[in-house]
């Protein structure tokens, strides 16, 4: 089928949208996080996998359109890990990040947090993040359970320590007015979550730094295992995890501080939580695709910047690696 602006010609394993621009990556990742893929049946998934296999072996049934092939690939990539070939548990898929993560975000941003509630919500948030990071990691090398647990404990400890420490400091700041103290207290989750997210990514994917990740040539063949590519992959992922919580944990407190002054909400206090939840959901839903679109999932790196043994093993100038999400 001829390539058109609406639906380009299908290419197996390639993104539907051009990945050299931010807009192209944004459109790609909006597909990746589409929550509708959470409701795909096992039968439908098998049909999609079979259709792609038929295409790969040149046995495609007549009448199958490019649009059908792109949709099949979207469903497969949303559910099945590209390295392991196994299904990702629903709450830990990128398509489940917003639906399953929003209740935790709402809890983190609730006003008048106690030390106990702060610890509980930070623990839940980092537990979810740890599982998402692990489920969507570069899995070309096996990761021992002990390293997963070390990363998990490190991430939770850092998040709880920072959040509780900041809350205690704010409560002791007697010079601040109650209104100012409440706004600042609502902003506490951001530095705590951002710092912990960096720890979470680094600790959960630490084995990649010591063992390296596979780098691929233009034909998708593995050239070697690179620690330098692993460092790039983890740095890029950690950066997105700092950008992601910025609007999620900064905008809702500011928006709610204004909405709470409205006469309608002051006379209908029961609506505060639903409005707060809606603000969090919208902010989270808009922030996620923007943050993960900063870098392509299949990133490229110049051979000259990799290990000498990899440079000697290929004639390619640029190699590709799975950054993870």
Q: What's the quick description here?
A:
The chain has 14 helices and four strands. The chain is mostly helical. The strands form two sheets. Strands 1-2 form a two-stranded antiparallel sheet. A two-stranded antiparallel sheet has the order 3-4.
Describe the fold and architecture:
With 325 residues, the protein is mainly α. Helices cover 60% and strands 6% of the residues. It has a two-stranded antiparallel ribbon with strand order 1-2. It has a two-stranded antiparallel ribbon with strand order 3-4. A hairpin with a 5-residue loop joins strand 1 (213-216) and strand 2. 35% of the residues are buried.
> Which ranges are low-confidence, i.e. pLDDT below 50, for 5 or more consecutive residues?
1-5
Give the overall shape, derived from the CA principal axes: globular
User: What is the rounded distance between the termini?
Assistant: 32 Å
Helix amount, in percent? Answer: 55-70%
Helices and strands, in order, run as HHHHHHHHHEEHHHHEHE
Calculate the mean pLDDT score and round it.
Answer: 83
Main-sheet strand order equals 1-2
**Total DSSP E strands:** 4
Radius of gyration: 22 Å
Biggest sheet statistics: 2 strands, antiparallel
Binned strand content: 5-15%
Name the structural class.
mainly alpha
How many helices? 14
Main location: mitochondrion
GO cellular component, one term: mitochondrial inner membrane
Pfam families: SFXNs (PF03820)
GO molecular function, one term: citrate transmembrane transporter activity
């Amino acid at each position: 089928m001829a390539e058109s602006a609406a639906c380009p010609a299908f290419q197996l394993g390639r993104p539907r949208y051009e990945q050299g621009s931010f807009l192209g990556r944004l459109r790609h990742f909006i597909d990746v996080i589409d929550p509708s893929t959470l409701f795909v049946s096992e039968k439908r998934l098998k049909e999609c996998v079979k259709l792609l296999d038929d295409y790969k072996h040149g046995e495609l049934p007549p009448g199958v359109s490019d649009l059908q092939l792109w949709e099949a690939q979207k469903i497969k990539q949303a559910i099945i890990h590209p390295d392991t070939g196994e299904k990702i548990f629903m709450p830990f898929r990128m398509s489940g990040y917003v639906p399953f993560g929003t209740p935790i975000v709402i809890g983190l941003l609730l006003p008048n947090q106690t030390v106990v509630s702060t610890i509980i919500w930070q623990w839940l948030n980092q537990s979810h993040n740890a599982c998402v990071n692990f489920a969507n990691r570069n899995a070309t090398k096996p990761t021992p359970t002990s390293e997963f647990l070390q990363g998990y404990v490190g991430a939770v400890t850092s998040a709880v320590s920072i959040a509780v420490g900041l809350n205690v400091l704010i409560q002791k700041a007697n010079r601040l007015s109650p209104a100012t103290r409440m706004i600042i207290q609502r902003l506490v989750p951001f530095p705590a979550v951002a710092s912990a997210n960096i720890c979470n990514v680094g600790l959960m994917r630490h084995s990649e730094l010591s063992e390296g990740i596979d780098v691929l040539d233009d034909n998708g063949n593995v050239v070697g295992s690179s620690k330098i590519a692993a460092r790039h992959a983890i740095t890029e992922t950690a950066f997105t995890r700092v950008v992601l919580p910025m609007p999620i944990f900064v905008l809702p407190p500011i928006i709610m501080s204004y909405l709470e002054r409205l006469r309608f909400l002051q006379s209908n206090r029961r609506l505060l939580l639903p409005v707060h939840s809606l603000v969090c959901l919208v902010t989270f839903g808009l922030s996620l695709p923007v943050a993960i679109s900063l870098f392509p999932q299949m990133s490229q790196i110049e051979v000259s910047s990799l290990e000498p043994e990899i440079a000697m093993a290929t004639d390619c100038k640029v190699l590709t690696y799975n950054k993870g999400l």
